Amino acid sequence: MDRDHLIGLLDRDGEVFVAWRRAVAAGAIIRVSDGGTPASALAAMYTRRLRLIQRRGTPEIGFAEAVRALHACGEAGARV
Q1: How far apart are CA 12 and CA 21, in angstroms?
Q2: Type and span of the H or E element at 37
Q3: Are 75 and 40 in contact (CB under 8 A)?
Q4: Could you report the per-residue pLDDT of 3-16, keeping only the tens digit for each?
Q5: How confident is the model over 56-67, as pLDDT tens digits?
């Protein structure tokens, strides 16, 4: 995926999107899968991960916000 295109896709409000945009713009390594997955499937998986993070008391930046964004996308395709 083109870096500038990804930065444009991440042009949304919220702490997690700002952090992602900055990381990508700063040259972070990015890998995007070829196939899409329904956002609802990713939301379910990341919801379980969020609960584990919270139970362990692990600090997180924007993870809960990202999970909410995935839930809001419903069945729309998402790529990781």
Answers
A1: 9
A2: strand 37-38
A3: yes
A4: 899 899 888 888 88
A5: 999 888 888 889
Question: Within 13 A of 21's CA, how many CA atoms are on the CB side?
Answer: 13
Length of the chain: 80
pTM of the model: 0.58
Looking at residue 80, its pLDDT comes to 67
Residue 62, number of CB atoms within 10 A of its CB:
15
DSSP-H helix ranges across 1-80: 3-9, 15-25, 39-56, 63-73
Tokens representing 5? 């295109």
**What angle, rounded to 10 degrees, do the helices at 15-25 and 63-73 form?**
100
